[in-house]
Protein 1
Amino acid sequence: MTGDERNDVFTAGELRSFGFTEELVDRIMRFLDTSAADLSSSKPESVVQTAFGGAPASVTCSGHAGKARQHVVDAINDMVTGLHRYHSSLDGMRRRALSVDDTSEADINRLIVRAEDCAATPTVGSPSQCVAPTGGDS
């Protein structure tokens, strides 16, 4: 992850401060999965050609109803795809936030070890090699 990408990502702590707890994110993701499954299984019935009678205008009406049904099916499929994408985005946001926290924790632990090493009493055989940390040391 580059520095620019890291600036665009919230930490898990920041997400919690916005109200995005792990439990809430899990509940939202389950809701999105359930909603996508429910939508996917709720396709309108097909219109039989003689649904409006046998007259030529009735058959034309039936044809139009079939086309309208297909538009509804396409819209439902688009909504299901959108719910899956929202699920993926939310999961990606959570993963990136946890990754930032893990990276930050590793950086902090490395600096703590470095500070502890500097705080140790140097000996003649092992003189202190401490250098003050700079902004690029993280």
Note: The helical segments are 3-7, 12-17, 22-40, 56-119.
Protein 2
Amino acid sequence: MGSLKAKGGIFNSEIEAGAATKIEGASGIGNTDITIDGLLKLLKSGAEIADVDLVAGSGDRIEAKTGFTDSTFTFTDPFDAANPKQRAFRKFATRATAMHVDVIGEASFGKIELGRAIDFNATSGAPGLPADSLVGVGLDFANPTVIDGVRIKGLRNEPIAMDNAFFNAHSINSISVVFAAGGAGDRFGFGAEMFPKGATYKDDDGTVRLKQRDLVIGDNLVNLAGTRLTVRMVDAD
């Protein structure tokens, strides 16, 4: 199957295909298992992607106009040290909410751009790490994976843009987040050995910019408005 483009939606389906596949559902993709033997060039929904279990070697663009819900995206290509440009996917994006979503792979990730991230997990290069957790301070990544960038933009009339969301890789190259949750509960955020461009956080109380040189081993807390957001620097040695 070279491509599947539904003017309506794709629902209650099982899809198995080879590489170079494009899958598009104009009114949504839901309750569907997708298995791709190789590269998935495009998975795109004109509405929501919900209750989807995707397994693919790698991907290019994964996009949903009105959000991701209750879905798992697993990328199986092994890390290739000889190919520094290798990515499990190039872009994973929605302008809306990604909720109850796991994104897992052995290779590096491209850019993750979300309106909101709630109960969200993206882990590159630490396949044994439990979901909904940050890497331990002494954990060594099997390979020097990266996440090219994470941006959580927020949504109008939604006071919280990030809660119980976890991003892990050997290096997370850039971070931009707004309106993280505070109050009681466990910490969430970003775990890596390196943060080359640091992290920027913004809410109504102001802006915090954490640079690589300012970070210490362990949890670097973002204390504006009492958020539970942390940037955890791992010391593999």
Note: The chain has a mean pLDDT of 93.
Protein 3
Amino acid sequence: MSTSHDPDGPAPSNASREPGQSRSGPSVRTIVIGVLLTLLLIAGAVLTAVLVNKSSPGTFVTASASKPQFPMELPAKIGSYSRDPNAGTTPETNPTSGISTMSATYSKGSQPAVVVVLSRPEKDAQQFMTEAAMGAVTAQDGGYCGTSSDNNLDACVVISEQTAVMAVGLLGQSRADLMAVAQQFGSELAG
């Protein structure tokens, strides 16, 4: 009786393996964990890009012949919220998509309270939330709210003159409070 393996027969079983020996190559569990971590990193990168894009100036020409859009500027103060007037808030335009974004952190009192993000042109608040890697997205008072998939911060967005105005809570604010902030910024920016 021969102990050699027949190339046309079944593959040898793993029963002959010593305890503690593993197959060569990564396990399925390792691959799944790797894929999940990669997806989380990508989602985090997308949200970071939306929240942090403010390093170089950009322009956007709109085809809308109706009311001109408000300037892509974040004021130093709106209502009880203020930002550091020395912090730069220059929009950055993605050359591929043509979308301009900018953001600033606003404090209420002396504590950072919200990050306000502008993104233009945007027509669909729900789609914007999906592209910003927000989960648990629900309609709320004329806009949408969701939770960031990479840092669990809640955020709400409204569309004002083809511009997404998103308020990201830094103090655990309710979605209703964040929607009020997004609406306040959207209406005051639009004049």
Note: The first strand starts at residue 77 and ends at 78.
Protein 4
Amino acid sequence: MKNINAKLIGIGFKNMPAAALDGAEIPPLYDHIGRTITSFALRGLIHTAYANLTRGNETTLFPGVAGRHLDLYSFTAINNSGNSNLVSFRMGTGGGIVHRILVPSYGSKSFIFNPPIPQDEMAAAITAQIADWGEISDSPITISAIALEDNL
């Protein structure tokens, strides 16, 4: 058996690299301290949000990032009222609804989008709102969410 000395050569990144051309070689990817990147996103490109939604108000979860897309990856909604509430998620303030979920009374709902919901407009906010329908409580719905930054 031959001893083969293989040298692993990679490039470190703090941000997502540009897309590769078809047929181009792709070197291993490392973070700024030399760890191999195997997950879906670099830590610096993960955004978290926490907000209380109140009746009738559209609330910004993630403000827009100049020159970047923020893709909605996951959320958890917690309802502390005796009424079920419908929560709508939008890309851009007043934009089209991209997802709705009914949060049961005194309950919670979590959802992971695989793949994430892509943002169609750079630098737009991701917002959430309690729908005005049926029996609505003045108790807020608590939302925690994760978005992934994409610079492509």
Note: The two ends are 45 Å apart (CA to CA).
